[in-house]
Amino acid sequence: DTAVSQTPKYLVTQMGNDKSIKCEQNLGHDTMYWYKQDSKKFLKIMFSYNNKELIINETVPNRFSPKSPDKAHLNLHINSLELGDSAVYFCASSLTNTIYFGEGSWLTVV
Amino acid sequence: DQQVKQNSPSLSVQEGRISILNCDYTNSMFDYFLWYKKYPAEGPTFLISISSIKDKNEDGRFTVFLNKSAKHLSLHIVPSQPGDSAVYFCAARLSGGTSYGKLTFGQGTILTVHP
Questions:
Q1: Which of A88, A92, B55, B79 has a 20 to 30 Å separation from A12 between CA atoms?
Q2: For residue B2, what pLDDT is reported?
Q3: Euclidean distance between CA atoms B84 and B49, whole angstroms
Q4: Chain B residues whose beta carbon lies within 8 Å of the beta carbon of residue A33
Q5: CATH top class, domain B4-97+104-114
């Protein structure tokens, strides 16, 4: 009965590959997010979607493309992966003030 | 430009005593503040929050204090328990507009509670 679930949890891939991380929430929230935790442990927002509409795009390279097929899902596609993309990516959702996070996806680009 | 700062990277406390985690912010447009707790290899878990119109919010062992004039908030945990050992993140939300819902996080404080 996980509220915000994301897959895969761990992903190791080579530079130049294209990969996707999937996210689903069963909380009935209308807003979903992708956050990135970098090597310095800062958590920073990448995107937010409200009812499938892009609300926030925080100057993320266009190799990163979120896709929201419905308001319960927000997937993250990353093209032409680079070494610097290695990080932990957290999906999250909210209805009002509080944002609830998934368990994270550890991406390692080699 | 780090708008939310947690200046103590770590804090060590004995079980049963009070843990006080601090957070400072620079943007006066923040209207809502949250504390999250994070265990290794897990996502941040919401702990407690406070609106900018309040100066205190309490939930069980956790109390958050907000001092708007000083742009400072703190999380008090009393009594501290070994299971509280985790990384604690302070987060702040901007009011209104297209930034609605976006959280700005501090860099986290590692709390260790010793038995």
A1: A92
A2: 82
A3: 17
A4: 101
A5: mainly beta
